[in-house]
Amino acid sequence: MFHTLQKTTLALAVLASLPETAAAQVAASSAPISTVTVAATRRTDAADDDPRRTPTSAYRITGEQFDQKNVHSLEDLQQLVPGLNVQSTDPADMQITIRGVGDGGGQTSGEQNIGMPSSVAIYVDGVYLARPGMLSGLNDLAWADVLSGAQGTMFGANATGGVLDLHTKEPTFVPEASISVSAGQHNDERVTAMLSGPLSDNWAGRLNLISNGSDGAVTNLRNGHNLNGARSNGARGQLLYRDGERFKLRLSADYNNSNSEPTQVLVATHTVNGVDTYLARSKAVGNNVVFGPNVDLDDETHTHILQGGASALAEWQLDSGWRLRSVTSLRYFHSAPSLADYQSVQIYSNSGFQQHDRSWSQELRVDSPTGGPVDYAFGLSYLGQKLDITAHTYYADTTLPDIWLGTAAGVTRKLDVIRLGLLRDRSLSPFVQGTWHLHPDVDVTAGVRLNHDERGGSFIRYNRQPFNSGYLETTNNLPSGTVVASWRAAPGLSSYAALSYGEKSGGLNISSGAAAQAGLDSLIIKPERATSGELGIKADFDNKRLNLKADLFATQVRDFQTQGYDAVDQQVYLLNAGAYISRGAEATVHWAPNRSWQFDAAAVFNDTYYTDYDQARCPPEILLGAKPPKSCSLNGQRVFNAPRVTANVGARYEWTTGGLKNFVSGRYAWRSWMYGTVDDSQFSRVDGYGLAAFAAGTSGKTERGEWNASIWLNNAFDRTYYKRLVNNEYGSVTGYLGDPRTLGVTLGYRY
């Protein structure tokens, strides 16, 4: 809390030192602006008219809504967007799915395997993030779109499950500044500061600073440490050059430094064939068995992540109506964890999984003049990536590892299993997409992309089942396509039918290696293919005060990229595992009956099941039994990370009294149970849960700007839930606890 006050004092001093002329300019420009409702046949929002945004299922959350709902992370975002599922322990290990389609890693053993891309693409200001953890937070956003279904035509190969498209606020030519300070239980704190304004007639700048963190919900009984928390500090700077409406250049750079203590707690142990092997081995080595939410650890996991990058976005508006756009980026991500063994005695020591990821991209795009029978865009994208990993599994210099593992005396003592992985990726993809205005009320949007992907890499393992793959290379041509027909049946009523196809990039087993039985070919993972179809309807009533959306959807995924298990070298590895189907329905309602009240509700029913997964790894309840089979069939079973029902509701009431603007709000998000690992283990089944949040606040004007104050309560009913469950050794199950009930306050000032 002391650090929070220090940061607050410094930021307030900066704001106070700004010239009075700047404040006067803001005051002059802050006169009330009346709200105007425009009814038209065609949409006039530039973001909606972008060919990237086909009229299919999408959720848009504005920056104001992020602030109002106190949402600042991807994990919080899933409480606003049904169908979105985020499993995260730290930025280096994050899985995202939309309608059950996304990251197929599954982590049956808790082992990361980063040689495979996600099916859900994340873009920030037009820049593709090669891994979800590169999105360090949701700060200073103008808006964010969550797009469902295969989106590869305009967003590239790794968008077969959907897209998170985020846009930050640009520098302004009117001076503005803000500071927001939040403090709550469990040492929850968040400080943000923003300064924006003109630098000359053509240049403007914007600077964002952020520091946040909280203690975790786990206590180490041995030393009293609070674990499972995280702290981070970041900065983002922008320069904007404008030459009227003809040319715009936006330069951005960001940096983030984070530290966390992701800590699994013991959820359960299981007896198979009359024996609880985990408890028996624990007794043999003197491990003190403690069930969550507490732990007894002789060593603790720590992760340290440095990441950042720079980008340049240039746009030209030609007199002829043509628009040209260029987006250039360079990003890096470095993770250096120190992993504990989650026991009270030392089994492993100084183990870790260090990752160093660098990516660079360039996109050129041309938009045709609008207003004719066909509006279209075409362009060319390039993406490069180099990823190095160094992993150590170092066993303690005692007799305990052999006892724990059941190996002969001295086999693992001081053993250091070293794994080195290298991944290089280059892709070049031309694309074109456009909309044919077939009739004043009928549009047909169609597009194609061909992604030429060249991927190479290697895997080396020392000291246990030694292995050296040599440098392997693979090349794939990955097509994507989409066609959407939309019909405006009446003012405020429209419908659409969409069909899309996409192929996700292949992968390489660069963190666990190949399967001994399958041979060297198992290092290479084929592309994953997805076909999506959707029928939807949208309606506005009561002068757009009531908005309704509903759709039916289905996606078939083939050559599913996920995990298998090789019993010979006891390694989890990546493979193509057949096919599954995701199908269901969703509906959303937004109702603002007057200026005071606002109601929102949304729900997704998602039936996702395997149609071809014959050689799956058996779950531990079968593997630990007598004479277990080499593999199990999951045909007809539910896909992991895919709750069948997700829903959320929210309400907000605003009123003015005594010159103050006041509000109260509440929201509730619920999701049904799901399997937490790809093997559909009953041990790692994540129970359904609901989270409620409430807030109340007030704001008022000062001579120079506006202040605000609010009180908020997250996880209001203190629901115990797990963000993730993992099958661990000998039938034990460990999990990552969600945040407990947290009461806090936020104070802010802006002008």
UniProtKB/TrEMBL annotation:
Compartments, as annotated in UniProt: Cell outer membrane
PANTHER family recorded: FERRICHROME IRON RECEPTOR-RELATED (PTHR32552), TONB-DEPENDENT OUTER MEMBRANE RECEPTOR (PTHR32552:SF81)
Protein family per UniProt: Belongs to the TonB-dependent receptor family.
Keyword terms, alphabetized: Cell outer membrane, Ion transport, Iron, Iron transport, Membrane, Receptor, Signal, TonB box, Transmembrane, Transmembrane beta strand, Transport
Taxonomic source organism: Duganella dendranthematis
Highest taxon of source: Bacteria
Membrane topology: Multi-pass membrane protein
Domain TonB-dependent receptor plug residues, every copy: 51-163
Protein name, per record: TonB-dependent receptor
Domain TonB-dependent receptor-like beta-barrel residue range list: 272-715
Residues annotated as signal peptide: 1-22
Cross-referenced InterPro entries: Beta-barrel_TonB (IPR000531), Beta-barrel_TonB_sf (IPR036942), Plug_dom (IPR012910), TonB-dep_rcpt-like (IPR039426)
Upper lineage: Bacteria, Pseudomonadati, Pseudomonadota, Betaproteobacteria, Burkholderiales
Listed Gene3D superfamilies: TonB-dependent receptor, beta-barrel domain (2.40.170.20)
